[in-house]
Design goal:
Shape: globular
Radius of gyration: 19 Å
Helix content: under 10%
Strand order of the largest sheet: 1-2-3-4
Number of helices: 0
Order of helices and strands: EEEEEEEEEEEEEEEEEEEEEE
Strand content: over 45%
Structural class: mainly beta
Low-confidence stretches: 226-243
């Protein structure tokens, strides 16, 4: 359809296979779709817990099922198989969630991070220093096999060229989901440096890749060693920040 804006937003692997979520907006059509696959090759659409065009927040997989974040109320839905969804009203609002190998689940809100081990009681474990200013907090959360990782705007510093203020967006990490640490760059400011920010992270086996952006607009990638927190640039002429 002309003017269609479509994209896959999330793909997660859970106990019943893979789930993928996409939303579509355009002149003649708007809506959401969820597909399920057991092998990553054959995909079938699954029933949606909500049929309006407003996008879902995203998908997350847990040890015994899936979570589908909402944009309003309920906070999210739970599913054992990705087919039947149960709304969860009495919970914080989340934009994204991730689960560790031992079953701890972390959810990120507008400006805070929450954790639970049973999906019944959530504990607020981190609040952005800029929350009172109405600034955006954590952007996403993932479990990279060793720890939870997220990012958030935590403040602003004068840009290195002296031209205005630059946001400080460090990598936030937690081994247990409850205690979080901000990375620190070579200039003492959280993040690789005050003008380079981490925007997403993903892992495969023992290899973790972080994606960020420099002040000059370059998209940068680092290979991250989770236990040591060492990032090695993989772009041409990319610095090797430690954080």
């Amino acid at each position: 359809s002309k003017g269609l804006d479509a994209g896959i937003q999330d793909v997660v692997a859970g106990p019943a296979g893979l789930l993928a979520y996409a939303n579509f907006f355009g002149q003649d059509f708007a809506g959401n779709r969820i597909w399920r696959s057991e092998d990553g090759r054959t995909w079938k659409p699954v029933p949606l817990p909500r049929t309006d065009a407003w996008p879902f927040g995203g998908l997350a997989a847990t040890a015994d099922g899936y979570l589908l974040m909402n944009g309003d109320s309920p906070a999210y839905w739970r599913s054992d198989d990705g087919l039947a969804w149960t709304p969860v009203e009495d919970a914080p609002w989340f934009a994204d969630a991730a689960a560790s190998a031992d079953g701890t689940i972390v959810g990120i809100g507008v400006a805070d991070i929450w954790a639970t081990t049973d999906l019944a009681t959530w504990e607020q474990v981190w609040v952005s220093p800029t929350a009172d200013d109405g600034e955006q907090g954590p952007l996403w959360v993932t479990w990279d096999g060793e720890r939870f990782a997220s990012t958030s705007i935590v403040g602003y510093e004068e840009c290195l060229d002296g031209d205005g203020l630059c946001p400080i967006v460090p990598l936030l990490t937690s081994d247990d989901g409850y205690t979080w640490t901000e990375s620190t760059g070579p200039d003492g400011v959280p993040g690789p440096d005050r003008e380079t920010s981490i925007h997403d992270i993903a892992s495969l086996g023992d290899t973790t890749v972080a994606i960020g952006r420099a002040a000059d607009g370059r998209v940068l990638a680092w290979l991250v060693d989770p236990p040591a927190g060492r990032a090695t640039g993989v772009n041409d002429e990319t610095p090797e920040p430690t954080y």
